[in-house]
Amino acid sequence: MHRGGMSEPVRREHARSGPVVAVLPYDPVLDQVVLIRQFRIGAWAAGCDAAPWDIVAGICNDLEAVETAASRELEEETGCTALRIQPIGKFLTAPHVSSERLSLVCAQVSAFDGERHCGLPEEGEDILAVSFGFHAAFDLLGTGGLPLWAGMALQWLHSNREHLRDVWLRNA
Q1: Is 67 assigned a ligand-binding role in the annotation?
Q2: What is the pTM of this model?
Q3: Superfamily classification of domain 22-154
Q4: pLDDT for the residue numbered 35
Q5: Is 123 a catalytic residue?
Q6: 73 is in an annotated binding site
Q7: Domain boundaries, the chain
Q8: Which of 69, 97, 107, 138 fits as disulfide partner to 60, beta carbons 3.0 to 4.6 Å?
Q9: What are the per-10-residue average pLDDT scores of the chain (172 residues)?
């Protein structure tokens, strides 16, 4: 392809997927993030913790706006309401095997003390949602057990946290 020709035919696997959204819930007043744990088949198959710390994620329904999907998934998986949504970026999650496109966002929430059990039983969800101080959540990056988008979101928040807090708290 890059040398001006075509290679011999190669068999490839492709997982067709629609758009998805991932949400980092952040409370700028308490400087806390809300992370979740739920069963992840890929983590289990890789021999890792089958319920790694993660951020909220879900499928965008047909023609659904990213903000609408983010708010819905946030409520289902954490019980939190999105007060504001800040786009982080759009990414191909695994372009070598999937057509999945991810919209990554940060949502302003009012965090809660401790933990909650959330999720939709009719979707087979059994989710533990836990509020973490920002630094405790950021320290999870060193464990090697976070999904890629959770790590990206926490890195983004680390770089943009002071500005985000200034804007969100000033316009509260």
Answers
A1: no
A2: 0.90
A3: Nucleoside Triphosphate Pyrophosphohydrolase (3.90.79.10)
A4: 98
A5: yes
A6: yes
A7: 22-154
A8: 69
A9: 77 82 98 96 90 95 93 98 97 80 96 95 94 96 89 97 95 74
